[in-house]
Amino acid sequence: MKLQLPENINEITLLQYQKYVNLLKLELDVYSFTNRKIQIFTGLKITDCEKLTQLDIEEILLQIDKALNEPVEFKQRFTIEGTEFGFIPNFSKDKFQAKEWFDLTTYKEDVETLHKLMAILFRPIKNKDYLGNYLIEDYKGTDEWAEIMKLTPLSAVNGSLLFFSSLANELINYTQKYTEAELAKEAVL
């Protein structure tokens, strides 16, 4: 039996992660949970999982957990089935279409809809130059790309969520500093 394990977080898809999160919600015994976890990340059938030795299971679970917990960096581009996707190059509100902004705030970070969020944040690259700059396709809703986004590498998903988290923290810090400065001005007056 040949087994393909994820070597790192780049080899885990968003779909696998979504299935894993749903698995975590189920009340299963350890044996059933372990077999289903292995099935999700390796593609083995349950009947094949049941034939594994305990040592194999321990090594497989260790490798899966190692890949899942690997630190990530923000990744602007990735390729799925021959199509290169790029992260939205400009996040200013004057560049966002109303529908794009509405959908972005609607889907947020719910695991069930992460593929739709990724279809907003990453779109096919239509033009790029030798400096690494690129333009992405215009936003037409999530219907066209949401399903294929389930194949997004988990590293790109986590990296984009990390980007938003960092951006939110920077905005909070900026807002606090601005508020403190304004309060200091008022205290002087």
Question: Please, could you describe this protein's structure?
Answer:
The protein is an alpha+beta fold. It has 7 helices and 4 strands, in the order H-H-H-H-E-E-H-H-E-E-H. Strands 1-2-3-4 form a 4-stranded antiparallel β-sheet. Strand 1 (77-80) and strand 2 (83-87) form a beta hairpin. Helix 1 runs antiparallel to helix 2 (30-42), helix 2 packs across helix 4 (54-68) and helix 5 runs antiparallel to helix 6. It is globular, with a radius of gyration of 21 Å. 22% of the residues are buried. Residues 167-171 have low confidence and may be disordered.
**Count of DSSP-assigned helices:** 7
* Strand percentage: 5-15%
Low-confidence stretches: 167-171
> Distance between termini?
78 Å
Task: Describe this structure in a few short sentences.
The protein is of the alpha+beta class and about 190 residues long. The protein has helices at about 15-25, 30-40, 45-50, 55-70, 100-105, 115-120, 155-189, and strands at about 75-80, 85, 120-130, 135.
Give the SSE map.
Elements lengths: L13 H12 L4 H13 L3 H4 L4 H15 L8 E4 L2 E5 L10 H10 L6 H8 E7 L5 E3 L17 H35 L1
Antiparallel strand pairs: 1-2, 2-3, 3-4
Helix pairs in contact: 1-2, 2-4, 5-6
